[in-house]
UniProtKB/TrEMBL annotation:
Belongs to the class-III pyridine nucleotide-disulfide oxidoreductase family. This is Pyridine nucleotide-disulfide oxidoreductase. It comes from Desulfofundulus salinus. Keywords: FAD, Flavoprotein, Oxidoreductase, Redox-active center. The lineage of its organism: Bacteria, Bacillati, Bacillota, Clostridia, Eubacteriales. The keyword Transcription does not apply. Residues 477-564 form the Rhodanese domain. GO terms for molecular function: oxidoreductase activity. Its cofactor is FAD. It comes from the Bacteria.
Length: 569
């Protein structure tokens, strides 16, 4: 062997590792590249596992295939990439002084050392398995790798009719979506709302409405106390602080933790989040050891703070940067925005940047706005609604984050928000983006542009608006104010807010009937999406009403109870 060949050793063969290997090969055709993978499957789409479990992806090999349908197995990496892959091989220890890694062949128990010039840690994450009595019963699964996904799918197809999912995060909700037509689903979540780390509460409640509408039982703000068996070693029920729920399949989807044991024992620095600390080049505290994927922490591009964001998209971006750099490059990874997107039944859900809750905790002077809109021209067939919440710093007008959900197209708007956040845009700059328009694709003013303009009006003091959560809180406290509904009679007859302080005056009649409203009481206006609500606010202000606002999102984004009972015209 040519002694001058650079030896690149990669620990981990799922996402960041294979990506780093493939990129390094393109950058250095002469390097000796080896991947060590403890499992038997390589370079698979872990984020696709829920869809394989639900049967939308027929064969697990599809998760390992290239777009051309070629399975990325050991032979593929050897023949196409000239990369040596050792599956079923566990990395045991790193000798940084001698630049070797001790590995064990799990089939033969043979232990030996592999030398390296550059080492890459792509050890990934492992599912959180809470210390709950009964968690080791048959029929209780996590979703950490493809073997576990195959086992869950087999259980669903053969025996599972009552499924309890522990955890109401991204994976838990995706599982509820794909299994909702195959079994009775119960989600147990210890926080007060699902997706509590992704969305603000008023949007989480809208997601919960969809889940309940599909028959999913939500047990929120509750802990699992134990999992009980049937006497034969198989799961029978889950006991929580809110009661007991029968189950023949339990999936623990309570998050993941970074696999850092190898790095810790080698004396590499760990960060505040408990994941491996890396610099902008994705080097660890040892410059010859790089790390990427779910085992490392990242810098948040808005807050500048270290965060742990285990996402397949991030892992692949890490892999490319690392592949460049182990081959002699100086590419950098700037950080993350915590961007995430998922589908729950007919609702698409996405977020990027900071939520309002996060921004307030970090001390920003927060201003936000909730704006429903059609995803394309309302007259074009197939137009569907979406709801956008933008969060900004009122002091600088800088955009801090976006949350978008609804049955319509949210992906385009979410990615535009990502671009705006990445460039440090203000809300005003976002509103001026020259976005594509034709009726099949968008509205003349894109929903994101419209949301930005609404937030600009609020920042400028032109629009006085209230978040629906605040309205609900004040209703519960029995505060004295008027809720003014300015929709049409047909809209009012179809659905209404069920409160005694609601006054109905259609917008077209407001000027002539304004005298019916008290000037000495607060008035909160609303309509379907609160566009007319804001217009009503300006009309009343011109007529001398001084204490008028509107609640954001209107009926379309109202996350609480509604009255849909029949009503005579």
């Amino acid at each position: 062997m040519d002694e001058k060949r650079k030896r690149i050793l990669i620990i981990g063969g799922v996402a960041a590792g294979p990506k780093a290997a493939a990129r390094a090969r393109r950058c250095d055709p002469g390097a000796e590249i080896t991947i060590v993978e403890e499992g038997s499957f390589l370079s698979y789409a872990g984020c696709g596992m829920p869809f394989y479990i639900g049967g939308m992806v027929e064969k697990h090999e599809e998760l390992m295939a290239t777009p051309a349908g070629v399975v990325r197995d050991v032979a593929f990496f050897r023949n196409v990439k000239d990369i040596n892959v050792l599956t079923g091989t566990r990395a045991e220890a790193i000798d940084r002084k001698n630049k070797t890694v001790r590995v064990t062949n799990l089939a033969t128990n043979e232990t030996y050392d592999l030398p390296y010039d550059k080492l890459v840690l792509a050890t990934g994450s492992k599912p959180v398995r809470p210390p709950i009595p009964g968690v080791d019963l048959a029929g209780v699964y996590t979703l950490g790798n493809l073997d576990e996904a195959r086992a869950v799918r087999q259980a669903v197809e053969q025996v599972a009719r009552r499924v309890v999912i522990i955890g109401g995060g991204l994976i838990g909700l995706e599982l509820a979506d794909v299994l909702g037509t195959k079994a009775e689903i119960t989600i147990v979540e210890m926080m007060d709302h699902v997706l509590s780390t992704l969305l603000d509460p008023e949007l989480s409640i809208l997601v919960e409405r969809v889940l309940r509408g599909k028959g999913v039982q939500l047990i929120l703000g509750s802990r699992v106390e134990r999992i009980e068996g049937d006497g034969n070693g198989a799961v029978a029920r889950v006991v929580t602080t809110a009661g007991s729920f029968d189950a023949d399949l339990v999936v623990v989807a309570a998050g993941v933790r970074p696999r850092v044991e190898l790095a810790r024992e080698a004396g590499l620095d760990l960060g505040e989040t408990g994941a491996i600390k890396v610099n902008e080049y994705l080097q660890t505290s040892d410059p010859d050891i790089y790390a990427g994927g779910d085992c490392v922490e990242n810098t948040h591009l808005i807050s500048g703070r270290p965060v742990y964001t285990p996402m397949g998209s991030v892992a692949n971006r890490h892999g490319r940067v690392i592949g460049d750099n182990v081959a002699g490059g100086r590419d950098t990874f700037p950080g993350v925005l915590g961007t995430a997107i998922l589908k729950v039944f007919e609702m698409n859900i996405g977020r990027t940047g900071l939520s309002e809750s996060e921004a307030r905790r970090l001390g920003y002077n927060v201003q936000s706005f909730i704006c429903p809109a059609p995803d394309r021209a309302h007259f074009y067939p197939g137009s569907k609604p979406i709801i956008i919440k933008l969060v900004a710093d009122a002091s600088t007008r800088k955009l801090l984050g976006a949350q978008i959900l609804g049955p319509g197209d949210i992906g385009k708007r979410l990615d535009v928000a990502v671009a705006a956040l990445s460039m440090g845009a203000t809300v005003d700059q976002l509103a001026s983006f020259d976005l594509a328009y034709a009726p099949p694709f968008s509205t003349a003013l894109d929903p994101l542009t419209h949301a930005a303009n609404c937030l600009r009006n609020k920042l400028d003091g032109r629009a006085r608006s209230i978040n629906p959560l605040e309205v609900k809180k004040r209703l519960a406290a029995g505060e004295d104010f008027v809720l003014l509904d300015v929709r049409t009679p047909a809209e009012f007859n179809e659905v209404r807010l069920p409160y005694p302080n609601v006054v109905f005056i259609p917008l077209g009649k407001l000027r002539e009937r304004a005298k019916e409203l008290p000037k000495d009481r607060e008035i909160i206006v609303f309509c379907k999406v609160s566009l007319r609500g804001w217009e009503a606010q300006t009309i009343l202000a011109s007529l001398g009403f001084t204490n008028v606002s509107f609640f954001e999102g209107g009926i379309a984004a109202w996350p609480f109870e509604l009255d849909t009972s029949p009503r005579q015209s």
